[in-house]
């Protein structure tokens, strides 16, 4: 019996928005850290980020997640104001309870030290924060006094219990409790208060604002102690702060593209990290957990910092935080390339998950498809261009080639590149020289070149078009009726053509063009987005908008076929085989997953 086993998840980076802070949170055992993107909450091992668990039970986009002090539960909030409390012990992450805490996006969450009560802050119609018991949802006081959205919440982990919130109304508010009640408002900031945090021992709390300032207050009384780095701690807005374990130092990150470690007692900067010069190098989140000092760039990249070597991060975790729309693998399956809707192209080590983005000026809009041939990566985008990039350099080279119409799909075999466009089918050689341009009356959606590069299949909204390829010129030799052919793939031995259309998978014998599995058993319930053959031509896999992978093999699986819901609540945009028993899938959820297929 053929089964699927999830080997690895190469997780999405956090979704970031310019000018907005994000929250990442560590567990009490200092093993994992948490963040959100899309409908998912990601639990990643802080030392080996290829170890990842994904919680996918929110029906709407998640916004923040935090461990309870006990470590047994995680509270996660979403853009509709719902909070889900779920356990960390079982792999199924059993839901304890769900609360409709607010009427808008939840921006921050914190727990009381006994893991019994929660305060959330964010946007709402009637109020901007709420305090409640985690199990019953009963209100435990009032979080009031702000006139605009609450950006940040922190609860003192000690007695007497205190809480503080930071808001877009330029103030921080201090509360006693529980039940929590308003004590006073702090008005030292002249712009948004983006982050407030109590020190681990509760002796003080610090606020960081969009005005670039850091103010320190007494943790019991809220009296102002002083200002760090006056007149400004950073040249740009401060988005996040985090204490070290003993509270003697503070990490702050800013839109000025720097991170700083402060000696609190000396009121001085111990280490200054300059993390780039591009807009995407703005620093919007941070975490100090044990010996790990992590910041988050606007690009979504995680920067692991070492105070002993501040010139550059000791490690950068890269990837995508937008939907992954294209995927191609190397012939030996050791590496693959992906592209996302923002035009970013990333190379991956298939075994380790290590990744790097292609540097330089690339596509200015979404990449539609990728194809790899030898040491050249070919990419086509909505900017109506094709690029030929040497894989060894890790950088774009030369100029892009403008195309006659918008490209949708590309294939690369035997030093020949064929691009299916909305009104043309184009042929190039491996150096980027155009060999021919065929104007067509249909919209090209997909393309595949057969082994030997003597035949090309192009899918459109109503048909499959088969061309003879000779000396760089295409001549149509037949066509077959099919609906919305978004995926095509010749088998590596050249004997078959697999076709993915509107909810249907077909396979043609290229000798007589008879459909081999027409109507054969269970099919996808939505549009098929990708079909790819295993290297040995024994079987092929299909991926769909219905989130499933299905394995197809001639003469087997008549009726129910091996399938798995690979990306819950997400489309599968692309899949490919790394070897005869390993598949990589790329989802609308920005995740990559490696699947073992066993007989």
CATH H-level homologous superfamily name of the largest domain: YVTN repeat-like/Quinoprotein amine dehydrogenase
Ends: how far apart? 5 Å
Number of domains: 2
Mean of residue pLDDT?
Answer: 94
Shape category? elongated
Order of neighbouring strands in the sheet with most strands: 1-55-54-53
Q: Treating each run of at least 4 consecutive H or I residues as one helix, how many helices?
A: 0
Low-confidence stretches: none
**Beta-strand content bin:** over 45%
CATH topology of the largest domain: Methylamine Dehydrogenase, Chain H
Please summarize the sheet with the most strands. Answer: 4 strands, antiparallel
Q: What layout of secondary structure does this protein have?
A:
Elements: E1 3-10, E2 25-26, E3 32-37, E4 40-45, E5 52-55, E6 62-67, E7 73-78, E8 82-87, E9 95-100, E10 106-111, E11 117-122, E12 129-133, E13 150-155, E14 162-167, E15 172-176, E16 181-186, E17 193-198, E18 204-209, E19 214-218, E20 224-228, E21 238-243, E22 249-254, E23 258-263, E24 268-274, E25 283-289, E26 292-297, E27 302-305, E28 315-317, E29 324-329, E30 335-340, E31 345-349, E32 355-357, E33 367-373, E34 376-381, E35 385-390, E36 401-402, E37 407-413, E38 416-421, E39 424-429, E40 434-439, E41 446-449, E42 455-459, E43 463-470, E44 473-481, E45 487-490, E46 496-500, E47 505-509, E48 514-515, E49 528-533, E50 540-544, E51 548-552, E52 563-565, E53 572-579, E54 582-587, E55 592-598
Antiparallel strand pairs: 1-55, 2-3, 3-4, 4-5, 6-7, 7-8, 8-9, 10-11, 11-12, 13-14, 14-15, 15-16, 17-18, 18-19, 19-20, 21-22, 22-23, 23-24, 25-26, 26-27, 27-28, 29-30, 30-31, 31-32, 33-34, 34-35, 35-36, 37-38, 38-39, 39-40, 41-42, 42-43, 43-44, 45-46, 46-47, 47-48, 49-50, 50-51, 51-52, 53-54, ...
């Amino acid at each position: 019996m053929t089964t699927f086993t999830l080997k690895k998840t190469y997780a999405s980076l956090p979704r970031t928005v310019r000018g907005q802070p994000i929250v990442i949170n560590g567990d009490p055992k200092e093993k994992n850290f948490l963040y959100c993107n899309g409908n998912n909450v990601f639990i990643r091992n802080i030392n080996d980020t290829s170890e990842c668990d994904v919680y996918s039970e929110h029906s709407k986009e998640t916004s923040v997640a935090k461990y309870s002090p006990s470590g047994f539960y995680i509270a996660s909030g979403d853009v509709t104001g719902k909070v889900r409390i779920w356990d960390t012990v079982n792999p199924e992450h059993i839901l304890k309870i769900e609360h409709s805490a607010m009427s808008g996006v939840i921006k921050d969450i914190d727990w009381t030290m006994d893991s019994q009560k929660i305060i959330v802050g964010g946007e709402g119609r009637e109020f901007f924060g709420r305090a409640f018991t985690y199990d019953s949802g009963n209100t435990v006081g009032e979080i009031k006094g702000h006139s605009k959205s609450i950006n940040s919440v922190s609860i003192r982990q000690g007695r007497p219990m205190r809480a503080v919130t930071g808001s877009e109304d330029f103030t921080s508010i201090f509360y006693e409790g529980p039940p929590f009640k308003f004590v006073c408002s702090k008005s030292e900031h002249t712009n948004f208060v983006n982050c407030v945090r109590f020190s681990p021992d509760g002796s003080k709390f610090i606020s960081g604002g969009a005005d670039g300032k850091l103010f320190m207050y007494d943790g019991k009384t809220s009296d102002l102690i002083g200002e760090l780095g006056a007149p400004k701690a950073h040249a740009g807005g401060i988005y996040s702060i985090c204490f070290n374990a003993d509270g003697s130092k503070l990490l702050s990150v800013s839109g000025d593209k720097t991170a700083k470690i402060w000696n609190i007692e000396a009121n001085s900067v111990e280490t200054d990290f300059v993390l780039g010069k591009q807009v995407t190098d703005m620093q919007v989140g941070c975490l100090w957990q044990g010996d790990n000092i992590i910041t988050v760039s606007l690009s979504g990249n995680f920067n692991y910092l070492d105070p002993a070597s501040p010139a550059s991060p000791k490690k950068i975790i890269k990837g995508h935080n937008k939907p992954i729309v294209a995927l191609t693998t190397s012939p030996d399956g050791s590496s693959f390339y992906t592209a996302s809707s923002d035009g970013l192209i990333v190379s991956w080590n298939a075994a380790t998950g290590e990744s790097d983005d292609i540097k330089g000026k690339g596509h200015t809009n979404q990449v539609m498809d990728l194809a790899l041939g030898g040491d050249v990566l070919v990419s086509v985008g909505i900017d109506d261009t094709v690029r030929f990039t040497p894989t060894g350099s890790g950088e774009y080279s030369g100029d892009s080639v403008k195309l006659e119409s918008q490209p949708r799909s590309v294939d690369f075999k035997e030093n020949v590149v064929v691009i299916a466009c909305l009104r043309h089918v184009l042929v190039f050689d491996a150096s980027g020289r155009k060999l021919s341009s065929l104007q067509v009356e249909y919209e090209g959606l997909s393309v595949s070149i057969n082994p030997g590069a003597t035949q090309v299949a192009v899918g459109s909204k109503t048909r499959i078009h088969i061309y003879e390829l000779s000396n760089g010129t295409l001549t149509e030799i037949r066509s077959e009726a099919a609906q919305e052919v978004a995926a095509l793939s010749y088998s590596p031995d050249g004997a078959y053509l697999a076709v993915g259309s509107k909810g249907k998978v077909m396979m043609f014998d290229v000798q007589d063009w008879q459909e081999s599995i027409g109507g054969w058993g269970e099919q996808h319930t939505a549009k098929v987005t990708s079909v790819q053959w295993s290297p040995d031509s024994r079987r092929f896999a299909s991926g769909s908008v219905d989130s499933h992978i299905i394995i197809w093999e001639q003469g087997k699986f008549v009726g129910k076929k091996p399938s798995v819901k690979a990306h819950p609540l997400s489309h599968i945009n692309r899949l490919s085989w790394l070897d005869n028993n390993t598949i990589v899938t790329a989802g609308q959820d920005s995740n990559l997953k490696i699947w073992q297929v066993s007989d």
